[in-house]
Design goal:
The structure holds 2 protein chains of 2 kinds. By secondary structure, chain A is an all-beta fold. Helix content of chain A is 0%, strand content 50%. Chain A contains no helices and 11 strands. In chain A, strands 2, 4, 5, 6, 9, 10 and 11 form a 7-stranded mixed sheet that branches. Chain A has a 4-stranded antiparallel sheet with strand order 1-3-8-7, with no helix packed on it. The termini of chain A are far apart. Chain B has no helices and 11 strands. In chain B, the strands form 2 sheets. In chain B, strands 2, 4, 5, 6, 9, 10 and 11 form a 7-stranded mixed sheet that branches. In chain B, strands 1-3-8-7 form a 4-stranded antiparallel sheet, with no helix packed on it. The chains are: A mainly beta, B mainly beta.
Amino acid sequence: EVQLVESGGGLVQPGGSLRLSCIASGFTFSNYWVHWVRQTPGKGLVWVSRINNDGSSTVYADSVRGRFTISRDNAQNALYLQMNSLRAEDTAVYYCTRGLPNYSSFDSWGQGTLVTVSS
Amino acid sequence: DIQMTQSPSTLSASVGDRVTITCRASQSISSWLAWYQQKPGKAPNLLIYKASSLQSGVPSRFSGSGSGAEFTLTISSLQPDDFATYYCQQYSINPLTFGGGTKVEIK
């Protein structure tokens, strides 16, 4: 069974940092591009970042570029999102999700982890 | 960025109704469009990919059509389990973008 399990969310003050993790199982992790998508409580879905299957290529939304870093460890079947200089508007549930290389929809999602940025 | 506009934002319907949701892209995205269903407190679930391909395990009452910049999701006969929010997503050009969602409510 394909599984993606996020962790690392919590309450952090504005300007602080947090590192999210996503552990994959049930499939060959290194064959997939993986993404972070976030959802503000009660609002819609916003794509955040993507990393290709060997980690050599990353893409970010304008709203997080320069503050967030996506990375992966294929040996550990793990995806990460290092979030620095956090702002109130980064408050959201963060999902990890997978897609095949290049043009691909997201066929499996984690359960999400809540990040709250507040003083 | 490609803007994805869904309509309506809310839809009231009864069990057994035929339901259609529209998604318009601000530029052509070929057929690189997906539809997701999301229930409260849960992650989105892929229904349709490449505009009209049914994801494995998804009931055949769901169908997608369109290409270029205009797309539709149709539920042929609404079931109790289908009351949820539906999102379209383009995956043609970065940044990947989602529509604002359509909430299907019980009439």
